């Protein structure tokens, strides 16, 4: 495994943690994670693809090692996430890029590819998210994100992660241990909780329009690939089918036995990304 580099970048008034992989002289690949996750979720794919790309995996503000919001009701929004993305690109002097986004990271990519980064995002991978999210999916996610667990040990937190993120379909012990290592933080009393600001759930109440982005989706010109967990409660089969007939008309790849969201960590998933991104 290639050793990643850890960077702390000023962007839009925040300190954003970025895990860097590969040679900065290579074409840029941005990999943006889901709502309550971190950039370290992409370790396997970023490591493999770093032979070809300069891979940047940011922690969205409020997650991982990045700054928390100054005004949660304002800052935890796609507008501000986009501001930080543009700040990162300016810092690294990146003009054109490929974008892989899981869940929230996919919708950030959609809004940017149709707006402020139109013509600059050349390839877009949207992983298990769509412009129309079923209420059952948002309700399930909001329920656990807004009430983070607290445990005495990291081992207990790992057990919670295995249960809560079982829809990922991962069955590798090393994957779950890495997930626990990169998801845990100590509370003031020394116990263990997840590494995000519970206020990130405010996006569901203050910025509901962030989840309805058909207009943006229809404006995408970038080459696009759509991924879906066959059992996903976030990207329905109906919406995925409609996405293939609208906007960039992406190819749809569905993963049987997987929910929200495919990990992109297995050999076949990485090979699919490599083939698409090189086209």
Helical stretch tally: 11
Structural class: alpha/beta
Low-confidence stretches: none
Mean pLDDT: 95
Here the CATH topology of the domain at 5-133 and 212-277 equals Rossmann fold
What is the percentage of strand-forming residues?
15-25%
Principal-axes geometry comes out as globular
Fourth CATH level, the homologous superfamily of the domain at 5-133 and 212-277:
Alpha/Beta hydrolase fold, catalytic domain
- The end-to-end distance, rounded to whole angstroms, is 25 Å
CATH class of the domain at 5-133 and 212-277: Alpha Beta
CATH architecture of the domain at 5-133 and 212-277: 3-Layer(aba) Sandwich
Radius of gyration: 17 Å
Tally the beta strands.
11
The sequence of SSEs as H and E is EEEHEHHEHEHEHHEEHHEHEH
Write out the strand line-up for the largest beta sheet, numbering strands in chain order: 1-2-4-3-5-6-10-11
């Amino acid at each position: 495994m290639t050793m990643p580099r850890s960077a702390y970048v000023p962007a839009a008034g925040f300190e954003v943690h970025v895990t860097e992989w590969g040679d900065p002289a290579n074409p840029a690949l941005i990999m943006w994670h889901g709502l309550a996750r971190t950039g370290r979720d992409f370790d396997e794919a970023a490591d493999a693809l770093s032979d070809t790309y300069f891979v940047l995996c940011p922690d969205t503000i409020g997650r991982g090692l990045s700054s928390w919001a100054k005004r949660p009701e304002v800052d935890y929004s796609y507008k501000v996430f986009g501001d930080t993305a543009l700040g990162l690109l300016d810092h690294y002097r990146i003009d054109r890029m490929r974008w892989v986004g899981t869940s929230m990271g996919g919708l950030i990519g959609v809004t940017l590819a149709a707006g402020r980064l139109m013509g600059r995002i050349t390839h877009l991978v949207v992983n298990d998210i769509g412009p129309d999210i079923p209420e059952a999916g948002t309700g399930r996610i909001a329920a656990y994100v807004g009430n983070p667990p607290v445990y005495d040990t990291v081992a207990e937190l790992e057990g919670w992660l295995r249960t809560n993120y079982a829809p990922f379909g991962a069955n590798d012990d090393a994957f779950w241990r890495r997930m626990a290592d990169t998801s845990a933080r100590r509370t003031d009393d020394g116990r263990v909780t997840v590494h995000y600001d519970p206020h990130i759930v405010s996006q569901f109440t203050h910025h509901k329009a962030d989840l309805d982005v058909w207009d943006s989706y229809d404006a995408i010109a970038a080459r696009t690939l759509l991924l879906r967990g066959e059992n996903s409660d976030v990207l329905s089969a109906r919406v995925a089918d409609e996405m293939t007939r609208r906007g960039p008309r992406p190819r749809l790849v569905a993963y049987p036995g997987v929910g929200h969201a495919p990990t992109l960590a297995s050999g076949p998933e990485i090979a699919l990304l490599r083939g698409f991104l090189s086209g």
